[in-house]
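User: Okay, second chain of the day. Same drill as before: sequence in, structure tokens out.
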Amino acid sequence: MKINFKFLILPLFALLSTCQLFLGQDPDTGPEEILKNLWTDFNNIHANLDFRMCNNIKYNSWYDVYYNANTGYALKVYPNMSEELLFGVCGNMLKELNDPHVGLFAPGKYTGSYHDNYREDFNLSAIRSNLIDNGKNNYKNFLYGRFSAKPNIGYIYIALFTDRDSEQDEQEWGKAINYILKYLANTKAIVLDIRNNRGGEVFVMEYIAAHFVSEQKDYMKARTKTGPGPNDLSAPKIFTIKPFITIPDKMYNYTKPIVLLTNRSSVSAAEWFTIALRTQSHVTHVGTPTCGALSSRKDRPMTNGWFYSISPERVTDINGVCYEGIGISPDEEHIITNIAGDEQLNHAIKLAAGSE
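Assistant: Same drill. Structure tokens below.
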């Protein structure tokens, strides 16, 4: 199933050529109108303002901080101010959202909204040293193999859910999962690692996820913002994950025990992948919470030649739980933070080995 949602892959500028553009609203390019139009668009289109406010700024007061509704005067801008200063004010306003899918772009300039300083140790080279023959990376975006100390335990790392070098309709690389699972077919369990996965194409994500599914499940709902109110949202679109149809010697799936590894740098489509696999009884989620940026990403031009990216959807799991801004967390006993070495991976291997 091919779905025309486009997800962020950080850095944001990596996907600009494939993003959908929308027309702006007001031809006035004065500083106050630029700021006002930018705020208005975000108020009308961004679906998660009330989840995203930081620095103790509440949803209903965000407008007054940057543009005073009573006087109509922009508090932080003034006529004939320089483009550089105006860009800084507009960028600072968007940073209040702390949203990885939000950014502001001008010729030669970019400012992102996301400013989470949370970092985790993740060393793919060290992981390779634990795999027989340093693992295999003969397929784009995949590293896979068996652990030297536990040959019955397989390992798959997925770096992205897109091929940056291919057009959206040419994402054939994901089909390599069939050959990888053929190679790991005789293992007793696998560690499926999507730490530091920055997202990608939903249809690729669902194709790969289907290879690890044993039972069809509705896993997610998405609503699009339809108006200025925080709850002005469309009817939900339901997403369903289905088991992949296997064909002997050609198409494979894996429904033995799976340990899924995430961290705060698992973003966007990687988070959809996490929600989908968490519906399966043979999957155990380990690591730390994901980033918490689940909307698709759209780009809109501004009247002065700049443009910005925005998050137009409220995404929840099938039970209506919204993870925006907080991330999808493993169960408490499986929350593992890397302090010295890759403790997350060590925990995952122990869980996988216990299922042998």
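The first strand starts at residue 103 and ends at 106.

User: Thanks, on to the next one.
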